[in-house]
Structure formats: C-alpha cells, structure tokens
Amino acid sequence: MKLKKLLKKFPIETILKIPGHVALKDVQIWFQDEARFGQRNTTTRIWAEKGTRPRVVQQQQFEYAYLFGAVCATRGEAEAIVAPLSNMEAMKEQLRLISQATPAGKHAVVIMDQASWHQSYLADEFENLTIIHIPPYSPELNPIEQVWSWLRQNEVANRCFENYDDIVETLCRAWNRRAWNRFCEDKSRVISLCFRDWLNLIS
C-alpha cells in the first residue's frame, strides 16, 4: 500500500519541480545512484563440465571503488564515473555528465536517494536538470538497483582484483558502450531494466 501511494504521488511531485516553461513531453527521467565494487567481490554460479567442482577464489583484501551511474529510462542513455570516494565532488561531476547528455530543449529530472552527498542545491548550476529525492528506505523506487545487480552478475563476479587501478579498469570496461556486450552497448537492455509505467507524466 505504501508503494502504491508513493507511485501515485510521483507524477505530481515531478511536475511541480519542473520549470514552468518546459513541456512534459520534453522531460527526461534519469535514475542515479552509486555502488561500491571491490576485492570483497560477488560470487555466482558458473558453467562447468558435469561432474566437476570449479573453484572461485574469494579475496580478503579491502580495496574498492565507487561507480556513480545514471540511466535515462526513456532513451536508454547512461552516464557514469568511477571515483575512490562517495562525495559531493563526484556527485557534481555525475550531474555535469547528465546535463551534457540531455539534448537542447529537454529537461532532465534526476531521481536519487537521500544520501548526504545528494543535495538538491548541487543542481543549481545546471539549467537543464532538477533533482527529486525518493523517500528514505525505498530502494525499490530506484530501478538502477537492477543495473548494479546486472553488472555484478554479468561483469565483475567471480573475479580477483590486483589493486584499485584494476578495479577501475574493470568497471570502465563493464560500463563502456564501445565495448562488446557491455552494459551501455545495448540501449534496449537499459530501457528493459529501468523503465517503469509510472514514469509516464502525460496520461
């Protein structure tokens, strides 16, 4: 019931945050979040010859990096940076990428959680985007969580990382649209993972 009420309110709250001169048809919804990836990595099932018991090494070191990612659920576009820390500097750079990826005449509504570095005023220097926070403890309202799951299952699981640079290189390859079968390479996959019916502001 709580989720249904939140989804019902979403289009109204979104519309109220959009500048008055921007038509709803020109609004693009982005989902943003960050996730930590590192040497304490995910292990998953793997294909193996019948009768064998493959081994996967689980590292005990603590090197990691943060992947700041954002996806446009209607266009299938995606932007990301890799940073050593989660802070406002990285967040501002993420917003800059979203702003640059938003076509002229369009307005980006960036949906994110209420982490301390997700401050609304960070969007003030970008004329073509607005930040909307989801309620606390409501990760189900941010479909980019499924992106993290896809990356862990398909790109970074069952791996050992030599150091921080190795983690960064792996994350960049996993996200990069120019690499074969990577996350951004297939826009239909981005839309399939992240689009929701309640994103339709014109109904």
From TrEMBL:
Q: By what name is this protein known? A: Tc1-like transposase DDE domain-containing protein
Gene3D superfamilies noted in UniProt: Ribonuclease H-like superfamily/Ribonuclease H
Q: Which NCBIfam families match?
A: transpos_IS630 (NF033545)
Give every Tc1-like transposase DDE domain span: 28-167
Q: What is the lineage of its organism?
A: Bacteria, Pseudomonadati, Pseudomonadota, Gammaproteobacteria, Vibrionales
Q: Tell me, what is one Gene Ontology molecular-function annotation carried by this entry?
A: nucleic acid binding
Q: Known Pfam families for this protein? A: DDE_3 (PF13358)
Give the organism, scientific name: Vibrio halioticoli NBRC 102217
Q: Which residue windows are coiled coil?
A: none
Superkingdom per UniProt: Bacteria
